[in-house]
Amino acid sequence: MADNGLDPKVAYIQGRKKYHRPSGMLWSENSGTLLNGLYIPQGYEVGAAVEGVDPKLLNQFLLITDDNRGPLNFSEERIERRERMINGRMRSYHIADKISLSTNWNFIPSRSHDDTPEFNITNGLSPNKSYTTDGGAGGADMLEWYNSHKGSFWVFLTYDNKDAFKLTADPYDHLAQYNQLVEMFISDFSYSVEKRGTKFDYWNVSISLEEV
């Protein structure tokens, strides 16, 4: 257990957030687990300072910066088969609801830190200088994930979605937690290098994701 009494993974995620709420989006190789009402990815974050563990546990998730991020735009697709009956009424056979998500970042650093972050596996803090204000992935970090993930991965989201906790004792008390977990793939990734600098560049990034 961590010194504060929390599960080590819970303490890590809470330590990685600079503000009251965690980064709006996290990309993960796995669906994680539910600990104390909080979705937690398994394994270690990209750039975590850890040695001597199973290599399969390394580079398992990436927190995405909220710096200059645009809105999280959701669209729902209802997959169904409609058929008109002999009496003229339409009958619908519902198959599934799938979501698409798009967002963008303007003028963000191309990298999150001045060197490999080496996140402390207890509290998520890095000894290296952070270029993004929350230590989340910058433009080139996101591009690297995109290039290495041709298939699907898991997207952890946190926004005011209290309906996800309607069966809990305190449905209004989960705003600071990841509340939605969706397996998705990136259907579109585009970026522009707006300004070059001496230590990092400023990028604009746009992405679209679709549920599997």
Number of helices: 2
For the terminal residues, how far apart are their CA atoms? 35 Å
Whole-number total of structural domains? 1
What is the rounded Rg?
19 Å
Number of strands: 9
User: Helix/strand-derived class?
Assistant: mainly beta
- The largest sheet has its strands arranged as 4-1-7-8-9-6-5
> How do the SSEs run, as a string of H and E?
HEEEEEEHEEE
What general form does the structure show? globular
Low-pLDDT windows of residues: none
Question: How many strands, what sense, and barrel or not for the largest sheet?
Answer: 7 strands, antiparallel
Residue-averaged pLDDT, rounded? Answer: 90
% residues in beta strands:
35-45%
What does this structure look like?
The chain is built from two helices and nine strands, in the order H-E-E-E-E-E-E-H-E-E-E. It is mainly β. The protein has one domain (8-211). The strands form two sheets. The chain has a seven-stranded antiparallel beta sheet with strand order 4-1-7-8-9-6-5. Strand 5 and strand 6 (90-109) form a beta hairpin. The model has no long low-confidence stretch (mean pLDDT 90).
Topology (elements, then pairings):
Layout: H1 8-16, E1 25-28, E2 33-35, E3 38-40, E4 61-64, E5 73-84, E6 90-109, H2 139-148, E7 153-157, E8 180-195, E9 202-211
Antiparallel strand pairs: 1-4, 1-7, 2-3, 5-6, 6-9, 7-8, 8-9
